[in-house]
Amino acid sequence: MESFDVVVVGARCAGSPLAAMLARRGLKVCVLDRAHFPSETPSTHMIQSCGVDVLDELGVLDTLMSAGAAPLHGATIASDDVRIHAAVDGQADHPVLCLRRLTLDVLLVEAAGAAGAEVRTGTRVAGLLRDGDRVTGVRTDKGTIPARLVVGADGRHSTVADTVGAQEYDVTPPGRMVAWGYFEGVDREPLARFGRMKDMGYLAGPTDGDLYMAAIAPDQCRVNEFQADRDTFFTNAIRNWPELADLMADAKRVGPLRVFTKWHGYFRQSAGPGWVLVGDAGHFKDFSPGQGISDALRQARHLARSIEDGLAGNGLDDAMQRWWDWRDHDAYEMYWYAARMGAPGPATPWTNALLREISANPAATRAFIQVLNHDIPPSQLYTPAMAWRATARAIREQPRHAPATVRQFISTAREGLQQARRKQRLADRTRSMNREPDRSQR
Ligand SMILES: Cc1cc2nc3c(=O)[nH]c(=O)nc-3n(C[C@H](O)[C@H](O)[C@H](O)COP(=O)(O)OP(=O)(O)OC[C@H]3O[C@@H](n4cnc5c(N)ncnc54)[C@H](O)[C@@H]3O)c2cc1C
């Protein structure tokens, strides 16, 4: 029975890059997945520039570009009649990429193999090996694999998390479902489009295969209405964003609509004796700001360093606990921001006034892109001063809604306080474990 330093369960955005980075550090790594690749997974696929940085470090960027990845040099954010046009170029080392998972994931799996990791696809993990409390490997449908560390990179329904009993915390309900399709005959403007028209959310942009991806995000409570006539619902939704409808006037859909309805947001306990979770296995957030893939890539980069350090004799379990702290601190603000962005219902006069503040101010527009790229936390853009200016603007522009605007301002301020308390709880947890948090790298 061959044993490994690390066995990674799950071979997509978190698992394969991690396996590649560990193998390059000279560790003996096995990465396995029940899927055979190329393989689709339910996900749209805007990859923020900070994630593209990691793809570049992995050495796969040129291959991705020749596979047709669409580089997006800017973003248009629309909310009813508000428009923000923001450039990515000049602010980040790489453009945003839009690349179907069918194309991306197989290249990541190949990169793991090329780096020297043992890749076993079509292999399902059914349980874990243990020595007392300690996880010592995995049990698969093809036999057992002992390892010094088991990494769960196995997504939202993680077998590793389930088997070790990892608890969820700070759970959020789903705001919206999402449905998306791929289209021919659409002008491939190099832009990501994020939108909200009345109660409908949107995400769109050109992708590989000379296709255009368009996604709609209706309120979660409209699932049955959507399911009753998917095509008509989708077509009507696209018509409600006039610029997108114009762009897609001659579009012809290729393949079925993809649909994702059942989810919730969470953090999970992400480290224990002999095991650690990365990517969606440990944390899932609302998909509206398109963060999960770049988060998985950045997390893999950070975790690779922590594992190398831990296995080098510096206390593996402590290193994994510190990594879990880093993940929480890294993801925390964006988690609540994403939940607000994907909240159901139409935009209010206050939220639109906030976006007008951003669109009227070039520095704030730049900061908006920096928030999406994880360069600055949302609180650095959405300051109390900005919230106050937006309140004054909303009351000036729509005095009829003044009471609702003031209520939203107050409830947002309360939410800010609640978030500060939650952050404090995180810091307390770190302190109670009697260790310094590792917040050194992005
Ligand atoms: C609808 C939707 C839209 C999204 N849009 C975006 C977007 O535009 N941009 C963005 O950045 N992010 C987006 N995300 C988030 C993104 O898809 C995830 O964050 C990302 O896929 C996480 O990668 P992962 O490797 O952690 O997990 P996954 O991609 O879920 O991979 C987990 C892998 O583990 C394998 N596995 C599971 N259990 C086992 C087992 N027992 N044995 C063996 N293998 C197993 C699975 O087969 C799978 O291949 C979206 C998500 C959803 C749901």
TrEMBL record:
Pfam families on file: FAD_binding_3
Keyword Oxidoreductase assigned: yes
Bias (Basic and acidic residues): 425-442
GO molecular function: 2,4-dichlorophenol 6-monooxygenase activity; FAD binding
Domain FAD-binding positions: 4-318
Keywords from the named record: Monooxygenase, Oxidoreductase
InterPro entries, sorted: FAD-bd (IPR002938), FAD/NAD-bd_sf (IPR036188), Geranylgeranyl_reductase (IPR050407)
This enzyme's EC code(s): 1.14.13.20
Gene3D superfamilies given in the database record: FAD/NAD(P)-binding domain
Stretches the record annotates as Disordered: 415-442
The protein's name: 2,4-dichlorophenol 6-monooxygenase
